[in-house]
Amino acid sequence: MAPMQNKVICVLVLVSMLALGTLAQAQSETCEVDPDERQNCGFPGITASQCTSRGCCFNDVVRGVPWCFHPKTIDVPPEESWPQVVMQWGSLSQAAFSARKVGFPHDTS
Q1: Which of 35, 29, 38 is nearest to 75 (CA)?
Q2: Given 3-state DSSP classes, what are the helix, strand and coil percentages for the chain, each rounded to the nearest 5?
Q3: Mapping DSSP to helix (H, G, I), strand (E, B) and coil, where does residue 73 land?
Q4: Which candidate, 98, 83, 91, 99, places its Cα nearest to that of 15?
Q5: How far apart are CA 97 and CA 109, in angstroms?
Q6: pLDDT band at 91, cuts 50/70/90?
Q7: How many domains does the chain have?
Q8: Is residue 28 part of a domain?
Q9: Cα-flanking dihedrals φ and ψ of residue 29, to 5°?
Q10: Which residue segment(s) compose the domain that 67 sits in?
C-alpha cells in the first residue's frame, strides 16, 4: 500500500472514531421501567443496597415483579450534537480527499 493511502486510511479511521465516540455519549440509563418490562438483576431477598451495588435499580412497590432490575438505556441526544458530527465528518473527509489529491506536507511519494 502506498504511503498516501495509509495516511488517508488513518484520517478516515480517526473520523470514524470521533463520530462513534460522540454517538456513544448520547445514551443514558433510567430506573423508570414499567413493572412488566423489568429484567431481574437480583435474587430473592436482595436488599436495596445490595441491588444498587450491582448497578441495578430497586423498587419494591409493585408485588409479583422483580424488585431489583436492570436500568433501561435511553437515547439522549446532546443539544446540537448531530450538526457538529456532520460538520466534523465533512471537514475531515474533505481534508482527507484534499490530502490524497495534493499530498501531505513533506510527503515523498
Answers
A1: 29
A2: 50, 10, 40
A3: strand
A4: 91
A5: 16
A6: low
A7: 1
A8: yes
A9: -120, 150
A10: 21-102
Q: Is 54 a domain residue? A: yes
Query: How many other CB atoms sit within 10 Å of the CB of residue 88?
Result: 14
Say which residue the cell 436492570 belongs to.
70
What are 54-84's pLDDT values in tens digits?
999 999 999 999 999 999 998 876 665 555 5
Q: Is 13 within 8 Å of 96 (Cβ atoms)? A: no
CA angle (42, 44, 49) in 5-degree steps: 55
In a domain, 74, yes or no: yes
Maximal CA-CA distance, the chain: 72
Q: Are 101 and 5 in contact (CB under 8 A)?
A: no
- 28: domain CATH number? 4.10.110.10
